[in-house]
Amino acid sequence: MQNTVQNIEQKTVKTPEKKPVQKILLVLQHNSGDIAGPSLRLCADINRFARQVDAETEAVLFGSCPEETLKSLGNYGTARVYPVTGSTDNFYSPEQRVDAILELVAVLNPTLLILPGTLQGREMAPLLAYRLEAGFVAGCVEIGCREGKTEALLNVYNGQYQMLCEFTGSPNVVLMADVNRGAIEPGGPEEAEIVTILSTGGMELAPSHVAEPTRQVVETFYLPATELDIAEADIVVGIGRGVQTREDFRLMQELAASIGAPVGGSRPAVDAGWLGFEQQIGQTGRIISPEVYLAAGISGAQQHISGVEKAKIIAINNDPQAPILRLADLGAVGDFKAVVPLLLQKLRHSRKEGPQ
Ligand SMILES: Cc1cc2nc3c(=O)[nH]c(=O)nc-3n(C[C@H](O)[C@H](O)[C@H](O)COP(=O)(O)OP(=O)(O)OC[C@H]3O[C@@H](n4cnc5c(N)ncnc54)[C@H](O)[C@@H]3O)c2cc1C
């Protein structure tokens, strides 16, 4: 196994011209050949950090992925991609993937391994850290560097406060928080030109080296639009402190269901227990970029709006002075308990009539 990887390295890895201070290995995911959103955002974020510290970024991906897609990671500052194909292609096992990553780590010697805050990332990161006896942080919202030391910023207690950790050894494993840091910014053609992606071949796992899977995926299925992750949806319904009773909440859920949108909202809605922390939008929650954000009972505090700046905002608020009405592309002044039933009626009506 060691030899297999070394051979590939000899075949594919170019010696960097400038010796980097750090070497970062990203563990990325793709969905049927497209780099998954959280992985792309991770690349873009880490690219910013990597430039700061003069680090070189490489990535490992599992399963067959078109060469063009792999090469396109160069636009996000990834110097090299290691596609792992073969035995892991047909089924998913965190243990097997960790085995493969460890083989790669033995050859590449990265100082930092970074995983997106997805289900797969959450499964693999602690295993990797344990097997590597590495420093480990989970739920990292930002990576930085001070006086030569790598720092990780974490949200603690549902974002009530933040914690800054400094790594004292190497290697380290960082599991990012499951946040969407907004727009994905590729470095542009200039950067892509100086980055070389070598994706030929890929690493074939020798079956003898593959750990026996300890579980099997029995079934996978798509979720209805209302249960989509708020970071992945085109329309998100937002609720705030104005939503106070179970009936209020049900009404907003009904609206969300009728337009096929998941529900997110402000911190008070999370504190009140209507939403989970993963549905909190804003500075200490998630930054999302749906096309439309329909907000009811939300005042429009900067700490909330900063999480949804890229969206077109439709706001329902009974206070004509509410800041959100100044920010909104479309605003309705009124009690949402009166406005939303009218909206639902209108939606039902237009569906009956069909497209004009
Ligand atoms: C460091 C820090 C980080 C923070 N991070 C976040 C964050 O990530 N996300 C976040 O959301 N907040 C965050 N906050 C809190 C933020 O400052 C606001 O307090 C919060 O966003 C307000 O939420 P809200 O709009 O739901 O509540 P409010 O500001 O209380 O607004 C409620 C609104 O609902 C309207 N309303 C009430 N009843 C009705 C009705 N029946 N029909 C229509 N409208 C109605 C009211 O007119 C009002 O405008 C943070 C604060 C700090 C200090």
Describe this protein's structure.
There is one protein chain. The protein contains eleven helices and 16 strands. The chain is α/β, with parallel strands linked by helices and 356 residues long. The chain folds into two domains: 2-209, Rossmann fold; 225-349, TPP-binding domain (Rossmann fold), CATH 3.40.50. The model is unreliable at 1-20 and 189-209 (pLDDT under 50). The protein starts with a helix and ends with a helix. Bound molecules: flavin-adenine dinucleotide. Flavin-adenine dinucleotide is lined by residues 240-242, 266-269, 280-285, 296-299, 301, 303-304, 307, 316-319, 322, 335-337.
Task: Give descriptors for this structure.
single chain, 356 residues, alpha/beta, Rossmann fold, nine-stranded mixed sheet, five-stranded parallel sheet, 11 helices, binds flavin-adenine dinucleotide
